[in-house]
Amino acid sequence: LETNTSVKEIFLSSTSIGNVGANALARSLKINKTLEELTLNGSNVGAEGALSLSEALKVNSTLAILRLLVYAGHGFGDTAASAFGDALTVNDTLLMLELPCAANWDLARGLQANHTLQVLHVHCDDRSLADF
């Protein structure tokens, strides 16, 4: 993926790539100049993998869509939500972001600073966004 110049979309939903796979994808995203869409819904990515992907968003200049939902109501926690908030303050190519329930002020500050994101889906099963 680091040297690939033709793949624009990767869908790895409902796989078992986990944090190891997410970390590898994040390393590649820091270099790749072609990928526009990455879907990892239900792929057992935890907080560690989410943190790696958020760091990649800070330097990647082509990814427009990132879907990173976790099934069964599990989220990444506030640390990962904060990291995505930080990434949104500097990323200017992401148009759509899907995350598990991640309501915190750092994510909100990132949204306030970002002027390119058009769609944010924050999926919550058992937690309210009232604190947003």
From TrEMBL:
Record keywords, A-Z: Repeat
> Quick check: keyword Zinc in the entry?
no
Q: Which InterPro entries match?
A: Leu-rich_rpt (IPR001611), LRR-containing_regulator (IPR052201), LRR_dom_sf (IPR032675)
- Gene3D superfamilies, alphabetically? Ribonuclease Inhibitor
PANTHER family in UniProt = LEUCINE-RICH REPEAT-CONTAINING PROTEIN, LEUCINE-RICH REPEAT-CONTAINING PROTEIN 34
**Which named protein is this?**
Uncharacterized protein
From what organism does this protein derive? Grammatophora oceanica
